[in-house]
Amino acid sequence: MTEQVAVKKKKRRKKKIRPYEPLAPAKAAFYSAIVPGLGQAYTGKYWKIPIVYGAIGAGIYFYTFNNDQYNEARDLFKRRLAGLPDGDNRLSILDNEQLIDRQRRFRRDQELSILITVGLYVLNIVDANVTAHLQQFNISKDLSFNPKLNFNEFDAKPSYGVSLTYSF
Asked: Rounded to an integer, what distance in angstroms lies between the CA atom of residue 50 and that of residue 134?
């Protein structure tokens, strides 16, 4: 009877280990480079896909916003240089120096938005690669690390210890 229980425990403890696939991280990175979020889908981390698209979409939104603001200030400045009236423009209260400063600021913000978007795109690729690497890392319950806190019975002071257990 005890042998059957021991065999059942061993069967329960045996975890099905996937074979090591050395190209899995490269595939995940390639998929993420082609279509952002596809590497996360390949590794099974579906909850990261909305984060990837939200981050890249926010970068694109800020780029277009800054581009529109830059173009508006530039067009008004060009109209003034050509000697045309300002027309019905909300920026007509600004003088030429303020328009130039506005153009510089929105151009800088536009370039910064591009850099941040590219950085998030690269981070998407790196995340897919790292996740694929870590999925192949063998984690089993045979190896455990348990810190312990014991009280000394004689002087009632705590004593600390660490236990490292490996069973196979």
From this structure: 21
pLDDT tens-place values along the chain, 168 residues long: 556 655 555 555 555 666 667 778 999 999 999 999 999 999 999 999 999 999 999 999 999 999 999 999 999 999 888 888 887 778 888 888 999 999 999 999 999 999 999 999 999 999 999 999 888 776 666 556 666 667 777 777 777 666 666 655
SS in 3 state form for the chain? CHHHHHHHHHHHHCCCCCCCCCCHHHHHHHHHHHCCCHHHHHHCCHHHHHHHHHHHHHHHHHHHHHHHHHHHHHHHHHHHHHCCCCCCCCCCCCCHHHHHHHHHHHHHHHHHHHHHHHHHHHHHHHHHHHHHHHHCCCCCCCEEEEEEEEECCCCCCEEEEEEEEECC
The distance of Cα 8 from the centroid of its chain, to the nearest Å, equals: 42
